[in-house]
Specification:
about 70 residues; mainly alpha; 2 helices; about 80% helix; elongated
């Protein structure tokens, strides 16, 4: 599965991690990591929106003006 690690070995590692850190600490860490990932995705989306807006502004500036 993961380079020769079986599901039982993963479960034992998970149990050891829970015993060492405790469920409360793991829950808080998971929440922090999840929040960081969400902020990162939001920042990427904002950056994408800004670049799309800047590109449309540049295209509008490039259009020749019609003189009557």
């Amino acid at each position: 599965m993961f380079g020769g690690i079986s599901i039982w070995q993963l479960l034992i590692i998970l149990a050891i991690v829970v015993l060492i850190f405790g469920t409360k600490k793991l829950r808080n860490t998971g929440r922090d990591v999840g929040g960081a990932v969400k902020e990162f995705k939001d920042a990427l989306a904002d950056k994408s929106d800004e670049s799309t807006h800047e590109q449309s502004v540049r295209e509008e500036e490039k259009k020749p003006e019609h003189q009557d």
